[in-house]
Amino acid sequence: MSILSGKNILLGITGGIAAYKSIFLLRLLVKSGANVQVILTPSAKDFVTPLTLSTLSNRPILSDFFDKNNQNKVWNNHVDLALWADLFVIAPATSNTLSKMASARADNLLLATYLSSKCPVYFAPAMDLDMHKNMANKENINRLISFGNKHIPVNSGFLASGLEGEGRMSEPPEIVDFIKNDLRKDLKLLNKKILITAGPTYESIDAVRFIGNYSTGKMGFALAKVAAKLGADVTLISGPTSLSMNDDYVKVINVITADQMFSEVKKHYESSEITIMSAAVSDFKPRSSFDKKIKKENKNLLSIELVENVDILKYLGENKNNNQILVGFALETDNEVEYAKLKIQKKNLDAIILNSLNDKGAGFGHDTNKVTYINFSGTIQKFKLKLKDEVAKDIFDQILTDFNEKI
Ligand code: CTP
Q1: Range of the domain at 106
Q2: Angle in degrees, CA 318, 319, 324, rounded to 5
């Protein structure tokens, strides 16, 4: 998932030849999962057609204060539009529009919406090289920056005039990257390496049977999504689940057995600043597994000899350095808090997330969970029954509060 996914974006296109590139920009924004509303200045319509833009954005294109084709004179409310937007991107921004933005002119819908907006505004100028060099123009750009608008600088190269120099609008992928990086820069876990395990492990009995558990992986996947949203680079090591992950910042490694999970976790642990073991790792595995299906005539195989799996979390606690934060999960049925606190000590954890099987709607399979967060110094934070996505947010809020200095 991109940081732009689900964001409401106003794309303002003004009347310059670079407007043709804004079609690609619109395409990229839509592909990132954003809801994009295009506003054209009247002269932009000479460069790009509303039909192309409305087809790509799946919305009517706005340009006038009133919809002239509609007899009821529907007002395109610039205030509502501005409030709807999470961000406003004006690309290309011509010298004319920049000057009007800098002096609070509102003689078209795009400008009136700009003046009403409270969201971040990005502008990507495009003009011929001498216009770009012009001091009045430079001053307008600087004024707009001083008002808090975000300037996406021009590129140098061939210009529509046939001249060569500075003035080309930044390329659409560069504009998207600029916005994404700008949105990410304030994220609390920016570029932190986070390792999360999720799901059950399956321990093979024979070619078709295994020992497993009811974990669906939902909690671990929710944690990974929240960490990525906070700016982290996440490695998610997951046992078998039916879930899928579509996030540029979450690398998924699929495993089946506890041994495979252990081997993958070891590869990624040292470089991880925060590790959360939410997987329901099987404590035991069959001493031996059969390549073929065991036939029911094999009565001597009615009992399966089990051996213990490695305790991955314990290993991580024993091999933790001072800068790492290690969080475990505990699933208990009685003396919950006491046992969870003991696990913090035994496995050298920084915090533990306690799931109680006594809570309705909590634990395996549900979309909701009810957890208690306990840190190494014994501070307890109980949360209400919530969607697992919200539980994941609570857990990271708590980690960020407790380990603010380390992170
Ligand atoms: N865990 C692990 N490796 C295992 C078993 C569990 O890393 N072989 C981790 C889980 O991912 C979880 C934590 O240990 O973060 C707690 O697991 P839990 O089953 O509640 O506790 P156990 O340590 O197995 O202890 P007990 O069965 O006695 O409750």
Answers
A1: 8-184
A2: 110
